[in-house]
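User: Structure please.
Assistant: Input sequence and predicted structure:
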Amino acid sequence: MTKKQPHIIIFNPDQWRSDVMGHLGNQAAVTPNLDALVEKEGVSFANAYCQNPVCTPSRCSFMSGWYPHVKGNRTIFHMMQPEDPVLLRTLKQNGYHVWWGGKNDLIPQDADFSEYCDEKYVPDQTMKFTSATLNENWRGEPDSPDYYSFYGGKLEEDHGLQGFADYDWGYIHGAIDRIKNAPEDKPLCIYLPLMYPHPPYVVEEPWFSMIDRDKLPERVKPPENFAGKPSMLKGIADIQNMESWPEEKWDELRATYYGMCARVDHQFGMIMNALKETGIYEDTAIFFFSDHGDYTGDFNIVEKNQNTFEDSLSGVPFIVKLPSSHKVEPGVRDALVELIDFPATVEDLVGIKPEHTHFGKSLIPIIAGEVNEHRDAVFCQGGRLHGETHCMELEATDQQQPGALYYPRLKMQRSEGPEHTKAIMVRTKDYKYVKRLYEQDEFYDLIEDPNEVENRIHEQKYTDTISALKERLLTYYVETSDVVRHKPDARF
C-alpha cells in the first residue's frame, strides 16, 4: 500500500429515505451540499436499494457484499462474527488507517474493535443514548395519537431529546480533527455512521424552520382498511393510532424529518470543507448512503419495520464522488443499484481482490459513463419463520411492554400470525413483486401506481409479468444461496 491509494470517506446517515434530496426533484428538500456535489463531481443513483429495511442486517450486508440470507443476518442481534468479511477490516489489513466514529450496529459490542479499525472514536461529551434513557416529556399523553408518533418537533432548551439531537456533532468534529491531522504514511478511511435522520423527529434551528411546508410532496395514504397491504403495516398503524392526525400535523412531522436531513447535509458540507482545507479532497473517494429509509407518515405510520418494502423504506440515497484521477460523468443515474455494490466499488477503486465470494458489482463503469445500466433487478428481504423466537428481538427487554417507544413494531415482531412473515422483494424499474410465506403476495405496477397503494397480485393482465418476476427470484436464490470459503480445509 502506498500514498497513491485514495482516501475514503464513508458518510452513512441512518434512515434517510431516497426521495428527500433536492437534485432528485423534491422541492421541499434542502440539500445544497449534496446537490452541488452531484452537479459538479459526483454521481447520484436515483434507484438505489438496501437489502434489508432495518439497521443491523443492512449494515452487515453492505459491509460484506452478502445478502442477509447468506449468513442469517436478519435481526439487530445477529451481527458480523469474527470469521465474517467486513470491508473496514479489509481496508485496515490493506494499509488504511481506519477511523470509526458513530453508531455500531455491525459487530457485537464485545468484539475486538481493533481488528476492524485503528480508532473507535468516542467524543468526550458523548453519552450513551437509548430510548430507555430519553426524557419523555416530549411524547404527549399515553393513549393519545401523539404517544407513538416519534414527533419531537423543534429542539429548544430543556427538550427531552437534547442528548439524542447532540449525538452526531461530536463525531462530526472528531472526523474533521482526524482529517486535519491525517497520518502521513497511510491513506485515511473515515467511517461516519451517524444517528440522524433516525427518529425521534427533532431538530434545532435553523434547520427546523428551513423547510417550506407548502412544498412537501403529498403524503401516501393507505388503501381502505389496508386492503391488499401486508398485515404488519396495519398492525403497526392500529397501535400507533395516528390516523386521526390532521394533514397539518403530518406536515410538521415530515418537515422536521426534512430538517434533520438538511442538518446532515450541512454536516456533510463541513466534512467536504475539511478535506479541501487540508488539500486532500481531490485524492479522496466519497460515499454517501443510508442503511434504509423511513415511512415518515406514509401509510399512516412512522419509523420502519423488518419485512415491508415500499420504496420509502427500501429506497436509499447513494452518491459517489471518485478521486480526480478517475473519469466521472457527474449527474443522476436511473440505473438499478444495491448497497452491496458499495464494497465491490471500493475494492475495484483500491485494487483489492476479495478473499470471499460476494455479490456486489462495481459502480465505477457506470460512474465513468461507460455503461448506462447496472442490474436488471434489485432485492430486499426480511422477516422470520414461525417458531424462530430467536428472531423476535426479545433481547430488547425495555421495548416489549406497552408505552415503550418501539412497542408497536416489537409487538408485531412477537406475533406468530402472518405479520412478521419471512418475505422478499424483487424490483425492476417498472414492477415490484413481494413473496410472503404466510399471507398474500404483493405486486405493484410502478408506472401506474408509483406509491404502491394498490396490490394487483390477482389481476389477470399481470399474470405473465408476475411469473417472470417469480422466475427471476428463483434465479437469484440459486445464484446467492450460499458461499464457499476460498481456502479449502486440509483433508489428506
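The chain has a mean pLDDT of 96.
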